[in-house]
């Protein structure tokens, strides 16, 4: 339920840059290669359109009685944001700060592929206000990268990380485990390679093969073998063991950081139900229980900007029940866990059941928090289902 117009809140801003050099076979994101874009929505005009959407979004929020004191986090995602010139990303950030001040300690992240940056571009991003880069490493094993249709050379990763460090940027590396044909030894190679870069943060996501992707079609044709759940669990435990041995701690089921300050504050804003703008084609936004999402195709998005209208495709006001469901789903996945008081009374007995099964930390539960153990992290979806009425 909406609490009504407000001011004084922190805001997070997600800017979706929907361009990729190559479409990866596993990817189900709203991304496009240059050859897929006809009739508008080009990379060259994108920054101008994104800045126009910021103007329109701020006006709409203010008309509804909402205002924000500061932007606490910004995240350029995609796609591959660094396919745009560094000056374009900086220009969008500069425009945003003319509308709402950036907090003095604002976290400003861009995603990047290791082969989409140079020493000069990373230096420009850092001088322009970006504070953090998240590289899509995915794997250090060439055969796995080929299966994923990734284009970079594994040796490019430590080079890109070194350039980012030289520029003063905090660095995260993103891995994917469970690729068809990937062995436990392959995962070990990839994680050790990532940790050898002395990264501040690491994400490791299990591969989910969505139904409308090229990889899903390969599975249906029998060209690839579907991931085995037990094998995926073994790989997750290996990732966690190696990360902990190197001094990183989990703070969300798929994310590890070297210190609490190096956790992704932008993603934590999502997981804790904060307010955020979603700028760009297909981007989602959230304001006090109201969620909306933009037109997906860049050409339709660009046409809306030409007309001077918000590019919103649709919206919904989350019910009290939906907001509770989301809170359980998201907060239970983070290391702080979920307050027992947030669990509906009718499902609260399940907390003791999962504690006894080793899925919830007994000491934390005694202190009023539902916090997943490592075994619980492997079965997080099952625990969540039992806590939802």
Automatic annotation (TrEMBL):
Family: Belongs to the anaerobic coproporphyrinogen-III oxidase family. HemW subfamily.
Localization per Swiss-Prot or TrEMBL: Cytoplasm
Protein name as it appears in the record: Heme chaperone HemW
Gene3D superfamilies: 3.30.750.200
Residue ranges constituting the Radical SAM core domain according to the UniProt record: 5-249
Range of residues in the leader sequence: none
Name of the encoding gene: hemW
Role played: Probably acts as a heme chaperone, transferring heme to an unknown acceptor. Binds one molecule of heme per monomer, possibly covalently. Binds 1 [4Fe-4S] cluster. The cluster is coordinated with 3 cysteines and an exchangeable S-adenosyl-L-methionine.
Keyword terms, alphabetized: 4Fe-4S, Chaperone, Cytoplasm, Heme, Iron, Iron-sulfur, Metal-binding, S-adenosyl-L-methionine
Classification via InterPro entries: Coproporphyrinogen-III_oxidase, Elp3/MiaA/NifB-like_rSAM, HemW-like, rSAM, rSAM_sf
